[in-house]
Amino acid sequence: MNYKRPVNDNSMHGSLSEEDKKILLDALHFDCDALLTVDRFARDQNKKVFIFRNYSLMILTPLELMKITKPYQVLCC
Fold first, then answer.
1. Chain CA centroid to CA 49, Å
2. Can you tell me whether residue 9 is helix, strand or coil?
3. I need a surface site. Which of 27, 46, 47, 77 has the fewest CB within 10 A?
4. What are the pLDDT digits (tens) for 32-74?
5. How many beta carbons lie within 10 A of that of residue 27, not counting itself?
């Protein structure tokens, strides 16, 4: 991935705090598939869809993570 693209993407950073930007850019830099957070920007579905479509990064709340992993929870016991 070209990491300069998300750094220069002003549409993604418009409503994010500096801390949120740093966390998001770190996740993209380390090629993470998902970012688990309880921050308020995780509640904005439009922003989450935009980031997933453009950068293939899922932004999940703990509840969303539990919904995704629920079918596999029995296998872990």
1. 9
2. coil
3. 77
4. 999 998 877 778 888 888 889 888 899 999 999 999 988 887 7
5. 21
The tally of CA atoms less than 13 A away on the side-chain side of residue 24 is 30
CB-based contacts of 12, cutoff 8 Å, min separation 6:
6, 24, 47, 50, 51, 54
3-state secondary structure of 14: coil
**What is the dihedral sign for C-alpha 1, 14, 39, 54?**
negative
Query: Rounded to two decimals, what is the model's pTM?
Result: 0.74
Q: Could you please report the per-residue DSSP string of 17-62?
A: -HHHHHHHHHHHHTT-SEEE--SGGGG-HHHHHHHHHHH--EEE-H
Collect all residues with Cβ–Cβ distance below 8 Å to 20 and sequence separation of at least 6.
39, 41
